[in-house]
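Milestone 3.1: sequence recovery, worked example.
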């Protein structure tokens, strides 16, 4: 089980030069420290879909690489990450590296129905975790109960949700349920 005492620290990404928070002392962290964040080229490709007045929804934000690097290109980012330890890293990355304060973090999963579900963790850094046990092909290391909300039930009339220009879904097999809970 991941405990609050486990080592999390900041590192400067080799690709972007931006600081992120990450749970250290695991193979994923070692790889990122040596080679830079995953999907950097894809994140740069996403810039073309953003606009200065648009809103970006980062659903399955992990430690916030998309949220942090795309925040300068849009009016607001809503980053969703249900896992407790990973969410703390997301918050740390945003606080450390987003000077415009245009990123809102939300510790919850999105899905078809509101409620509480079990999130199954398959890696020490939190990547690959899913609320759909049947899609996992790795041993389960831990699990935690997470709050699930429907995208439609969020305050989409709030001005910070107006003009959604881009949505990134990385929710390990739960993508359809997220969309079914949306408008």
């Amino acid at each position: 089980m991941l405990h609050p005492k486990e080592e999390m620290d900041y590192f400067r990404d080799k690709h972007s030069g931006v600081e992120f928070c990450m749970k250290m002392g695991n193979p994923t962290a070692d790889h990122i420290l040596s080679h830079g964040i995953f999907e950097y080229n894809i994140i740069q490709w996403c810039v073309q879909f953003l606009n200065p007045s648009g809103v970006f929804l980062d659903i399955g934000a992990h430690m916030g690489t998309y949220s942090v690097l795309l925040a300068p290109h849009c009016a607001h980012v809503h980053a969703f990450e249900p896992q407790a330890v990973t969410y703390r890293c997301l918050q740390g990355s945003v606080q450390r590296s987003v000077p415009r304060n245009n990123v809102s973090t939300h510790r919850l999963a999105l899905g078809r129905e509101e409620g509480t579900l079990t999130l199954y963790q398959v890696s020490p850094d939190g990547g690959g975790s899913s609320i759909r046990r049947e899609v996992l092909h790795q041993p389960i290391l831990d699990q935690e109960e997470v709050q699930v909300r429907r995208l439609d039930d969020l305050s989409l009339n709030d001005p910070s949700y107006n003009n959604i220009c881009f949505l990134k879904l990385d929710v390990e097999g739960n993508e359809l349920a997220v969309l079914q809970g949306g408008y």
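DSSP finds five helices and nine strands in the chain. The two ends are 36 Å apart (CA to CA).
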